From TrEMBL:
Entries under SMART domains matching the protein: ZnF_BED
InterPro entries: Znf_BED, Znf_C2H2_sf
Pfam families assigned to the protein according to its UniProt record, in alphabetical order: zf-BED (PF02892)
Keywords: Metal-binding, Zinc, Zinc-finger
Domain BED-type intervals: 16-71
Native source species: Pleuronectes platessa (European plaice)
GO molecular function terms attached to this record: DNA binding; zinc ion binding
The UniProt record lists the keyword Disulfide bond: no
Name the UniProt record assigns to this protein: BED-type domain-containing protein
Length: 104
């Protein structure tokens, strides 16, 4: 992880940013290939190859716990898990921690 210069503007991800984690990450304005995501909170560069957001979530968990908790809440709203007993959609505690979608 490296620090991004404090003066460089951080811009959003180009294209379709489907993960909620992109609320906390972007790219340096001069990173036209968008190859090095930067945390909008602490301006650290976090490696994330081929669109994989695991390292981004791990960065939030380790360095910004309250933001990580918020990201889990948002993630659960976007990816709820179905409950076969009631037919209603609920969020499993395991899916909140792992990001997994569980089917009974």
């Amino acid at each position: 992880m490296t620090l991004s210069p404090d003066t460089e503007e951080i811009v959003g991800k180009k294209g379709n940013a489907t993960s909620v984690v992109w609320r906390w990450f972007g790219y340096g304005k001069h990173d036209e290939e968008q190859s090095k995501p930067v945390c909008k909170i602490c301006r650290r560069s976090v490696p994330a190859r081929t669109g994989n957001t695991t390292n981004l979530f791990n960065h939030l968990r380790r360095h910004h716990p309250s933001d990580y908790t918020e990201s889990l809440t948002l993630r659960a709203q976007v990816c709820p898990t179905p409950n076969q007993e009631t037919g209603k959609t609920t969020t499993s505690p395991v899916s909140m921690l792992t990001g997994a979608i569980l089917f009974s």
